[in-house]
Design a protein that fits this description.
The protein is an all-alpha fold. It contains 5 helices and no strands. The protein has one domain. Helix 1 runs antiparallel to helix 3. The two termini are about 20 Å apart.
Amino acid sequence: MDKKINKFIYWTPRVASILFILFLAMFSLDIFGQGYSFSETVVGLLMHNIPSFILLIILLISWKYEIVGGIAFILAGLLYTAMIIMNAIQGSFEWYMLSWILTIAGPAFIVGILFIINWAQKRNRRDNL
């Protein structure tokens, strides 16, 4: 039983972060059908996917060092929340902006917390040996 829970806690943040990164990358597909040339489309895709690339690098590091993923995904959620709040303050606030925070920052917070739980569990096992 304990081994199943450990596997679940190990794999859940990793799979969830892969799904989250793919979800973010999906938003870059709006570049197609805009009438851009091939080179403009490639540049647009690269620009839209910078956050996904950064999170992918963080995931690769986090695969071994879970605390990095925990901190980085939580910071990514906080950064996105701060950006939305700043845009709301500078422009006009619309209630649907709160759903953006839940949709983007929410999964980042969850993945970060799961990485921290995995890191803490790994640390406790090491300390108990």
